[in-house]
Amino acid sequence: MRPNTSPVALRQARQHLLDSGQCPSGLVDERLSRSWSRSMAAGLVPTGRPQAIDHPSSGTLRHVLASNPELLAHSRPVMEYLFEQVRHSQSVVVLADRRGMLMHTLGDPYFVDKAERVALTSGASWHEAHRGTNAIGTALAEACAVEVHGGEHFLERNSFLTCAASPILSATGELLGILDISGDYRNGHAHTLGLVSTAARMIENRLLAATCKRNIRLHLHSAPEGIGSVAEGIVAVSADGWIVGANRVGLAQLGLHAGDVGATLLERVLDVRLDDLLSHHKRRPQQPQALRTPQGSLLFAQVQMDAAAWVTPSQPATAARVAPAQDALALLDTGDARWRAAADKARRVVGKPIAVLVQGESGVGKEVFARALHASGPRCDAPFVAINCAAIPEHLIESELFGHVAGAFTGARKEGHLGRLREAHGGTLFLDEIGDMPLALQTRLLRVLQERSVTPVGASKAVPVDFALVCATHNQLMQAAEQGRFRQDLYYRINGLTVQLPALRERSDFVALLQRLLADLATEQGLGFDVLVAPDLLARLAAYPWPGNLRQLANVLRTACAMLAEGEDTLGWEHMPDDLVQALTVAPTSPRSEAAAGPGAEGLPASLSLQQLSHAAIDQALQAARGNMSQAARQLGISRQTLYRKLKMPAP
């Protein structure tokens, strides 16, 4: 309804309604016309009083509140936030149930008295049949967000109000209640309807996450940065691939209606199988996947699910109960013995009060390893806070790590700052490149680790903290400690267990790693097909020493995939950057060449065909997985069906 409807048009339409019993077309909004007609049919008179009990029994209100515990619980925090936005506009924020009874209100003290005169208080009914046209009752009747301004209210006694209301829907599209902002019509704002609609979506998203805890949840947006915002779509999926819940944005993104919930397979609306979706999530839980709808629209999806083990469609329930669950470290394992030994050592201390120090060259995946270690332990649902000690300016690193109180120094935040160490409370703190931490800060960090408490900058009282500690460096810390560049006592404190990640040139699983990276990149770029590598190029890539390790390899492959022309699916020399082409043509044989083919092999000859390399990687993955086809496929970064096809075996 339009707040800018002229008073003259409203008076003319109202008089015509009273004289003829019908509202003339063209003078007012069609929804307003329908609402006025419903109000007349309910026996209301514009100059009369509402047909409702302004003060129902306390027992009735208690029953309504007891019937809507989740709606109330998830609405109250949002209502408090919403009220802060309108605190000085003489307004009241209202939550009503599905029948229009007000359950909870937050109001400006100046406006509350006026609101109470028209029973805009908990327990009163604002159904259209009781109070005529009003935002709450009309939003219920029209099942959409509406705004009713001044004289648009059917009862003249409510004409001092301006109201904006939006329905709150469940994950299956059921109407749960109404969120409303009501205020003095003289203070009406053009953005109020948008504000209340956004707040209603926030409540819907909170309810969906709470009621679909045992389902897989897809968070969708057309841009990866939009995931996690109020504009994201959320779709809940059952273990066998059926869409069992969604918010309004998710339904619109997939071209569905509320009636399609419970009757639509995920594969019908997105070009992905559920087990492939979950496989990618287990390998790259923080990386959104690029998916397409049948209409060709690109959506980025991120999976969220409970920590409990899930049985995917490709895994029988009985097998899932017998086979040990794959943790995040195992899902990164593509067959290299040294990497697996490092993971096995780290796995034995996860959950114990033992700090882990991850060493290795730049680009070998130390942070990825640390994140997987966190996800494999009992703190997996708590925060993982990563800090690059080499990337924070020295004059900021103290307040960034330890936090500060309000006004602690010039430029400090007025509200103070929690600090990354306290943000990690209950979870895991990851200090990357700790060898570059200034000596003065090393002293403070040592005190934190010894006393398990943090004293923010400018504070006099310490705050207890509890986190698992994982550090990483490409430096030789023992040598740095002997030379006085790193505190020896801190070195022994963070070195509960040291694991060394091998450089890419030293790993024996190059082909499997490359295939998994290509599978991830194909998903990331929405290619929709398996990306291959020309045999001669693959042999050269395998022999190259890769000074930038996995980071360099991933960047090269990402650019190469982007260079593929229409109809191409195989990377060749023309897709490589010029500097790498020159380096590859003169690259010496790497130490990995002897290891790539396994013990007793004669290395990786340049003439080895793509098919031979592919079969070697598959054999290696199957041996590592002890014949488990699903696990081998995950390690290779391909689907189970693709693995069967490469082996020329029928899928079960």
TrEMBL record:
InterPro entries assigned to the protein according to its UniProt record, in alphabetical order: AAA+_ATPase (IPR003593), AAA_lid_NorR (IPR058031), GAF (IPR003018), GAF-like_dom_sf (IPR029016), Homeodomain-like_sf (IPR009057), HTH_Fis (IPR002197), P-loop_NTPase (IPR027417), Sigma_54_int (IPR002078)
Gene3D superfamilies, per database record: 1.10.8.60, 3.30.450.40, Homeodomain-like, P-loop containing nucleotide triphosphate hydrolases
Sigma-54 factor interaction domain location: 346-562
Coiled coil (residue ranges): none
Annotated keywords: ATP-binding, DNA-binding, Nucleotide-binding, Transcription, Transcription regulation
Name used for this protein in its record: Sigma-54-dependent Fis family transcriptional regulator
Organism: Acidovorax benzenivorans
